[in-house]
Amino acid sequence: MKTFEAKRTRGLAEALPRRVAGDASPCGACSIRHLSICAALAPDELSEMDAIATAVDLAPGDPLFDEAEPAEHLFNVTAGTIKVYKLLADGRRQVTGFLSAGDFLGLAHETTYAYSAEAVTPASLCRFPRRKLENLLQRYPKLESRLLGMAGHELAAAQEQMVLLGRKTAKEKIGSFLLALERQAAGRGQPAGPVSVPMSRADIGDYLGLTTETVSRTFTQLKSSGVIRLLQGGRVELLDRDALARLAEGQ
Amino acid sequence: MKTFEAKRTRGLAEALPRRVAGDASPCGACSIRHLSICAALAPDELSEMDAIATAVDLAPGDPLFDEAEPAEHLFNVTAGTIKVYKLLADGRRQVTGFLSAGDFLGLAHETTYAYSAEAVTPASLCRFPRRKLENLLQRYPKLESRLLGMAGHELAAAQEQMVLLGRKTAKEKIGSFLLALERQAAGRGQPAGPVSVPMSRADIGDYLGLTTETVSRTFTQLKSSGVIRLLQGGRVELLDRDALARLAEGQ
DNA sequence: CGGGAAGTTGAAGAGCGTCAAAAGTAGTGG
DNA sequence: CCACTACTTTTGACGCTCTTCAACTTCCCG
Q: Do A107 and B209 touch (CB under 8 A)?
């Protein structure tokens, strides 16, 4: 069984927090606001968010928080990719999601985080003290409503992922994964073209319930059969979307 | 690959709806209110729920709704067990959850259901027209807040299930499953003692990402090693909780 | 009681994991 | 600019867990 060892180059404390409020009208100028929880607020209400937000920047591999740590902050991804994962006692790892611009992190019903979060690429986030954000949620029901909507989306995605983990073959898993990455990129308004796959084979494996080796072999297979093309810089071109879609749906 | 064929004894139309409001003060008398979304409302506000709720009773095997059907209703389980599942094109099935008293069903962000739901045991639910409940949510933010809390719980459970599906062995899966069933029963205030396992081996397999045969074999193994005892009526006695806990955590 | 579904058990096989090594890639410093 | 190192990815050989296919047993419910 494969095990996972954390190797941290630098801790949360060094994560370069800077007040969002330091800028002129940071939330007002936020280019991904329409994707995030903040879309629920009117422009003149955004100052309330400004007032409690702190910007955080992470380098690849930087931890954001660890499972079982007191959940004192909630986060909003503004740039880059964050991976979220849980560990078993012996080190086996399950990545439960890759988050990017607009995604919300830290919705914990407990007082501690239910999972660990770590940067995959250089990433930026808005950090909110839990208590202050909860206060804001009470005063602006439409914020809470927006959050409920996002939670619904996440739940649907989680169920889709359960189908993948429980019932799909390696080939089907990789196919679904690539299509999902492309869909997400499109949803964030990124131009069509090769899909950016910034995470390592190990991360992909831990997300899909496979080993690094199987992920690699499956990519090679899909490449050999002309369904995808592997470009450099972790980019993948989807040559035969129909074949991938058939794989993803189990036909 | 195993396939799944729906065999329906009776459809939704025959599902015996009766107005909750037919009773004197149905919601006020609801014995599982503290578990459900309704716990968010004060006693005098409950009549608002009464006004839009319809009771539904299902026999084992009865469908509640199907994936891709228009999501016109939301539900609250009041008794029995409901299974929720998704199908792949070729019939492979993933059960994403077993729901019981207090659980909420139908939180869809789309206009269609994202999964199918079907009774495992005789079951009762409260049915709410989607639009009317959404109206209520707007007027009572604390209802929405409660729903957000429940969604948070569900998300945490979904992530736990991803760890199980992606990274646990058959033995670990069954161990985790039995402990989770016991924990849920305790959380609903049911007396300690043998765990009730009302679902079939096939349902358990589709929930844990295993085949019927593997589920059966694993139960037999755990029985032989003295960790559990199989009683009649689908009840299981947990003889060695420590061993099960060690299995569940991957040690 | 009898018939059908659900559950159990057995034997054989496949898909993916494990272990190992080679090839590719990136970062570092002389 | 290139060598040196360390890590990631790929490829290969082999083994094991779980699936598949099949037969048998048990449990219900009419």
A: no
- The answer to whether the beta carbons of residues A52 and A133 sit under 8 Å apart is yes
Interface of A with B in 54-83 (CB under 8 A): none
pTM value is: 0.93
For residue A50, give the nearest of A72, A34, A33, A65 by alpha carbon. Answer: A33
Out of B137, B152, B209, name the one closest to residue A108 (CB): B152
Helix axes B141-167, A130-139, angle to 10 degrees: 140
How many separate helices (H) and strands (E) can be counted in chain A?
A: 8, 12
Name the token pair of B130.
């989607």
CA–CA dist A147, A141 (Å, integer): 10
For residue A147, give Cα distances in angstroms to A105, A157, B69, B233.
Answer: 11, 15, 25, 42
Of the residues A93, A109, A136, A210, the best mutation for testing chain B's interface (the one with the most B CB atoms within 10 Å of its CB) is A109
pLDDT digits (tens, 9 = 90+) for B112-151: 999 999 999 999 999 999 999 999 999 999 999 999 999 9
Non-local CB neighbours of A141 within 8 Å, separated by 6+ positions: B138, B141, B144
Q: Which of residues 150-209 of A touch strand C (CB under 7 A)?
A: 169-171, 209
pLDDT digits (tens, 9 = 90+) for A151-187: 999 999 999 999 999 999 999 999 999 999 999 999 9
